[in-house]
Amino acid sequence: MPSAENQQQLDIAAERAKCTFDPSQLTALFYGGEEKMKRFKAIEAMVDREPVFDRTDRYFLGRTERFKRALPMVKRYVELRNEHGLTPEEAAHFKVYIDDYIPVHLHESMFLPVLRSQASDEQLKVWGPHAENYHYIGCYAQTELGHGSALSRLETTATLDLATDQWVINSPTQSSAKFWIGTLGKMANHAVVQAKLIIKGKDYGSHPFLVPLRSLKDHTPLPGVVIKDQGPKQGAISMDNGYARFNHVRIPRTNMLMRFSQVSKEGVYSKPIHPKLAYGGMTAVRTTLINHSALSMARAVTIATRYSAVRRQGNVDLKTDLETQVLDYPAVQYRILPLLSHAFATIFSGYWMNEMYAQYNADITKGDTTLLKDVHVYSSGLKSYCTKLGADGIEEARRCLGGHGFSLFSGMIDFHRQFLATVTYEGENALLTQQVSRYLLKLYKDVIRKPDMHLSPPSRYIVSLVNHERFVQQRCPARSMAELYHPKIVLKAFQHRAARLIFELAQAEKQGAQWSDLNLECMRLSKAHVQYIMIENFHNGLEKRYNVSSNPTAEQEALLAAVRSVYNLHVFYTLETELAEFLEDGYFSPEQAAWTRQALKDSLKSVRPNAVGFADCFGFTDKFLNSALGSYDGRAYERMAEMTEYEPLNGKEMTDERGVVWGYEEFLKPLIFGEAGAYKARKPESKL
Amino acid sequence: MPSAENQQQLDIAAERAKCTFDPSQLTALFYGGEEKMKRFKAIEAMVDREPVFDRTDRYFLGRTERFKRALPMVKRYVELRNEHGLTPEEAAHFKVYIDDYIPVHLHESMFLPVLRSQASDEQLKVWGPHAENYHYIGCYAQTELGHGSALSRLETTATLDLATDQWVINSPTQSSAKFWIGTLGKMANHAVVQAKLIIKGKDYGSHPFLVPLRSLKDHTPLPGVVIKDQGPKQGAISMDNGYARFNHVRIPRTNMLMRFSQVSKEGVYSKPIHPKLAYGGMTAVRTTLINHSALSMARAVTIATRYSAVRRQGNVDLKTDLETQVLDYPAVQYRILPLLSHAFATIFSGYWMNEMYAQYNADITKGDTTLLKDVHVYSSGLKSYCTKLGADGIEEARRCLGGHGFSLFSGMIDFHRQFLATVTYEGENALLTQQVSRYLLKLYKDVIRKPDMHLSPPSRYIVSLVNHERFVQQRCPARSMAELYHPKIVLKAFQHRAARLIFELAQAEKQGAQWSDLNLECMRLSKAHVQYIMIENFHNGLEKRYNVSSNPTAEQEALLAAVRSVYNLHVFYTLETELAEFLEDGYFSPEQAAWTRQALKDSLKSVRPNAVGFADCFGFTDKFLNSALGSYDGRAYERMAEMTEYEPLNGKEMTDERGVVWGYEEFLKPLIFGEAGAYKARKPESKL
């Protein structure tokens, strides 16, 4: 009988042998084609070769140490980017692969995009080169201690001093201090500050200003600026999210970002033609968060699946005397494999969103803003839904790994802590559902007035509400479990449910409910609509986007069949989770509900044999996963033991050469030798 | 208009003014009466006075620093316990209040109880005093790298050497190394080791042995024992969970714990009369985990409620120009207040479980083991359900606090990370559901054979399945939303659902399904049964346990009414979450489903005015909460800013007196001054 360690390697090899498709085909697809994959893999190898990016002992480091490691990474990242002339997309992959939020992250992800989109051409000509080449290191300072994204309630002021042609930037209260600003605490020498623009006592609302923070000569904070790091967080441990308070700091009038609004020397304010164009940035970031969610789910699934394939517990096979691979238990499948299906659905929805966003960006250069609303609504809805799927799903997968899932060596904790931020930033998830719902409600009202109006495909189902009498008689037509698998039947069911929730929201509003009292209805509706979109995208991605020729090869057939099993899992898991909403108006019968539960069980079973193949298909390297449990070779227990070698409590500073812990003489010996006093029952004179 | 800071204090005061009951009445109740509260509060004050327990800068410390702080805590804890003659219950409260898992935690929570229950009277006479007085510092070494709680698959062996009258303790493989053992890594000088007992080649299964680990003279590891700390974890940051591997370590034969099994000098093995009696320990720990869940939920609710009462965002009141307290939004209520209701339900269920366990312990001294099964099943089911409620609910409440919930200053993260362990240890939550379901299935089969058999109250509803024809015709009799509030109607609904799931599990088994294929059914059934128990306990606690005299005072009436609103919230939140299972067999009508959703909204509204009163009622001190957001006085923003003062990145070591960050010269300057090279597009000769 092989040792547990060897058995793990046999097990994972056996999993790969029984996989019915070639995972590397999907890897290339997910990397954006063979060519791009080659290039991205070269970048990964480059990072692996560079000592400053080494992550061997990352899990042992406290915040100060992580920050100290991050500074050399910043420099080396910029050097390598420049040396190899990386495209923005390649540089982005580089940063993802580093897998740590280096403290200039916000310079590239927020400061530069805001500058590019909101500074005038003239301003960009001056500032652009400084910013692109890191002479200016910048951050984007919007959030305040007392307010998140509500621009209208920010307290920081920018008051025009006509005499000097300057803005006076001021933080009147403690709650007006800028807070949560990444790259601000220690790194940035410039900030785009959102502040209330005030001219002659009149408040024109929040606008962006370029404010120097630190001397370009020696990095000392400029007069009137109090800046500091804001303290430890759930994630982003290496990032210097910061606090800044401005005491009447003066900047030139021309430091206001003037692409959309302008203020003249005379103090005349001109407003933007398209006020909403100024908010393109959040939409872009939300779109990337959808892709980031997919990546994070895929990462967790890779680790959880591989470990569950090599971890044997419970029922013993009498012939081999081996316990069962835990991945064979439905409870384990149910807690891990749906996350795989969500990762796929999110990837396909990310493609869809990326394309819509690209189209919108192309349109807008021609002055066509038709897609503005859709881009905003779908990036909001998908961001809200996918980040929650990820945040919850990764944690559930972690809990499914037994005790070892609680160790940082699992590789499931460090990145998840960071990921947890995504449910809050760029629009809090629950809040975003109001935007989606308001949009659907508006469409519904429009359609009722004008049933032949144009609707974009994802909201076309709303038409079914025009004849409400017929709508309420709709019933799911599936006459057997097999028919439930039919994509049309599923999509129709999700459309019906979302439409019903739109109608109910409209009714509630009609009956006088305040919008702010309809939060729960919005959360429910947005989720219903987005779940429909996700299934539609997954289905289209599978059937149309990668359209296999009419004569597919056996290899292509095998791949499609495998991915289709994942699609079915996504569908039935979602259906089962939301079953009440399909039952409560009678659209589903009790029998159909029972079929759904059975179809979910069957879907788990049919994904199971390919599970390790799917884990492999995302193409993560062992170095990136940084996981004792989820490495490619399956040697989980050996790696768990090996990683303890780096624990500082076992190092020289904390344990002497005889193996005795720091503090023994002072704190332990008195206990062991009874000097700390023996326990006696309470005496009446106890003063306690 | 007051500043945001002053407004926060006005807001929280206004909340307290409008509370309809006296929170201190509940505080006394939860502390176990006025007398006990006085004593416990004195212990809290004592801890607050002791510098070693100070937690001002706890959130900034890395693992090594936390461990270094924990050692003095260990010594001081023992000294104070001895000095004041604290009872075990008081010492337990002391440790809870320290709010850090000091690295001898497992000595008192596992080593001592196992010794007391599994060593023979004779052994206890020798070992007891050493262990009680910390001469022996012990741990309980069961879990191995390759196995969790499955005693039968542990690999460590204890082989009797008849010649020397010794056991030889050995770890044959890497995966047999003891792992996850709290207090082992650096602190313990003894362990109770679970090892396979082998005599003359015969394996008698796992048994406990007292194994010396480190010299009592100088704390050096004994020959043949490799021990180390096992590395960083999600929580328990100050705890030295450890790794130990034994290389043919010899201990006297009499170091086997012999209360239940014995081995004579001649190598004759005697088995225990009641084999299951040996496993009492886990049941006790599970029972305490129920109480621990309640405490943790209450803690999160306290912080989240207070902050949401002083946090104003969104809709503006035109008269006052104040934004809305976020606690007034249904989305916020929906994400925080149900956790309050779960905390109450868990407290009342904890009382119920504690009493059952005390009764069981009393019975057992008289040789009566009737309650063994119930104690095991209910501690398992409640542990599984309540720890999950807590783990998920605390995280949801944290996410509801906006960005500041992501800061460690929120006070929502450090304790939650530790709490997350509870879903895994002492029986993994999903696994435990099988035990509950197996028990219910067995009862069902018995009842079918013998309908007049005795059933304990919580499972009495199973009788309804005897006449199955009548059972399937059951429908919820509520004719209005008001009738849904009737406790009898609610309890009946939960009974019906659990009974149906028992029946379906039995059917699936009858039709040939393997038990291991029925995981999902077990998870569903166990949850259904436990949810019923929780509601029953909450209801009884409210109506019977604290039975108000027939002429209640106005104060008592007010309290009861307030708690009843929390009960309703718990009921309708649970009902709504599980709505599909009430609909899918037609027990609920679509109309009743709609009433449920409305009743949930109404329940949130009716708890809302007392929310801060309920947050206060748990009696947590500000020092314990250690939260910028949830302190009693509501000064959230000021405290957030104040706590940044302690951030080491702002300290001398990382930022010089001019305000310039460590590493500026080496890593930032080269970027700012362009020495790191400027970006150029990729050249063809790039080797990447």
TrEMBL record, chains A, B:
<dbReference type="GO" id="GO:0055088">
    <property type="term" value="P:lipid homeostasis"/>
</dbReference>
<dbReference type="Pfam" id="PF01756">
    <property type="entry name" value="ACOX"/>
</dbReference>
<protein>
    <recommendedName>
        <fullName>Acyl-coenzyme A oxidase</fullName>
    </recommendedName>
</protein>
<dbReference type="GO" id="GO:0071949">
    <property type="term" value="F:FAD binding"/>
</dbReference>
<feature type="domain" description="Acyl-CoA oxidase C-terminal">
    <location>
        <begin position="487"/>
        <end position="672"/>
    </location>
</feature>
<keyword id="KW-0576">Peroxisome</keyword>
<dbReference type="InterPro" id="IPR046373">
    <property type="entry name" value="Acyl-CoA_Oxase/DH_mid-dom_sf"/>
</dbReference>
<keyword id="KW-0560">Oxidoreductase</keyword>
<dbReference type="GO" id="GO:0003997">
    <property type="term" value="F:acyl-CoA oxidase activity"/>
</dbReference>
<dbReference type="InterPro" id="IPR055060">
    <property type="entry name" value="ACOX_C_alpha1"/>
</dbReference>
<keyword id="KW-0285">Flavoprotein</keyword>
<comment type="pathway">
    <text>Lipid metabolism; peroxisomal fatty acid beta-oxidation.</text>
</comment>
<feature type="binding site">
    <location>
        <position position="182"/>
    </location>
    <ligand>
        <name>FAD</name>
    </ligand>
</feature>
<feature type="domain" description="Acyl-CoA oxidase C-alpha1">
    <location>
        <begin position="279"/>
        <end position="441"/>
    </location>
</feature>
<dbReference type="GO" id="GO:0005504">
    <property type="term" value="F:fatty acid binding"/>
</dbReference>
<dbReference type="GO" id="GO:0005777">
    <property type="term" value="C:peroxisome"/>
</dbReference>
<dbReference type="InterPro" id="IPR009100">
    <property type="entry name" value="AcylCoA_DH/oxidase_NM_dom_sf"/>
</dbReference>
<dbReference type="Pfam" id="PF14749">
    <property type="entry name" value="Acyl-CoA_ox_N"/>
</dbReference>
<feature type="domain" description="Acyl-coenzyme A oxidase N-terminal">
    <location>
        <begin position="22"/>
        <end position="137"/>
    </location>
</feature>
<feature type="binding site">
    <location>
        <position position="143"/>
    </location>
    <ligand>
        <name>FAD</name>
    </ligand>
</feature>
<dbReference type="InterPro" id="IPR002655">
    <property type="entry name" value="Acyl-CoA_oxidase_C"/>
</dbReference>
<keyword id="KW-0276">Fatty acid metabolism</keyword>
<keyword id="KW-0443">Lipid metabolism</keyword>
<dbReference type="InterPro" id="IPR037069">
    <property type="entry name" value="AcylCoA_DH/ox_N_sf"/>
</dbReference>
<dbReference type="InterPro" id="IPR036250">
    <property type="entry name" value="AcylCo_DH-like_C"/>
</dbReference>
<comment type="similarity">
    <text>Belongs to the acyl-CoA oxidase family.</text>
</comment>
<keyword id="KW-0274">FAD</keyword>
<feature type="active site" description="Proton acceptor">
    <location>
        <position position="426"/>
    </location>
</feature>
<dbReference type="InterPro" id="IPR029320">
    <property type="entry name" value="Acyl-CoA_ox_N"/>
</dbReference>
<dbReference type="GO" id="GO:0033540">
    <property type="term" value="P:fatty acid beta-oxidation using acyl-CoA oxidase"/>
</dbReference>
<dbReference type="InterPro" id="IPR012258">
    <property type="entry name" value="Acyl-CoA_oxidase"/>
</dbReference>
<dbReference type="Pfam" id="PF22924">
    <property type="entry name" value="ACOX_C_alpha1"/>
</dbReference>
